[in-house]
Amino acid sequence: MEGFWEFFWFMFVCLAFVAYLSVLFSIITDLFRDHEMSGWFKAIWIVFLFVVPFLSAMIYVIVRNDGMTQRSIAAAQKQMQAQGAYVREVAGQSSADQITAAKGLLDAGAINEDEFRALKAKTIMQ
To answer: Which UniProt keywords apply (predicted)?
Structure first.
């Protein structure tokens, strides 16, 4: 039975350490996202995060929670907009544009009528 509690305590300590690392990385990321805070204050926060880790992390999360949330939401929205723009760019043309391009190839003689019909059918099926 003693081995179980040692294992349980070990797992709890590992979980607490991983949770602390997650909070620490979130704080450091937020420090770099905050463009209103001067570099000296950022340096002071980072020094305190390594000198007095748990206390300074708790103070940072309590004091700067609202700004941290707003910066995180803004970064997520910016990422979503970038992904949307990338998807629209990669998706390229609409079905009508693809059929028009295939018709242009047919008119130029680059493809024959059967290839045009196959491309048209494939585009319509998408």
So the answer is: Cell membrane, Membrane, Transmembrane, Transmembrane helix
Chain centroid to Cα 12, Å, comes to: 29
- Give the predicted TM-score (pTM) of the model: 0.60
In whole angstroms, give the CA distance from residue 110 to residue 103. Answer: 10
Q: What is the pLDDT of residues 13-24, one digit of tens each?
A: 999 999 999 999
Say yes or no: 99 and 79 in one domain.
Answer: no
Residue 72 shares a structural domain with residue 118: no
Q: Assess whether 36 and 97 both reside in one domain.
A: no
Token look-up 């420090």 returns: 31
**Per-residue model confidence as pLDDT tens digits over 69-93:** 899 999 999 998 888 877 767 666 6
Distance CA 67, CA 75 (A): 12
- The token pair that represents 18 in the structure block: 């991983």
Domain count of the fold of the chain: 2
Tell me the residue range of the domain where 126 lies. 93-126
Q: How buried is residue 49: exposed, middle or buried, by Cβ count under 10 Å (0-12/13-18/19+)?
A: buried
Residues 76, 98 within the same domain: no
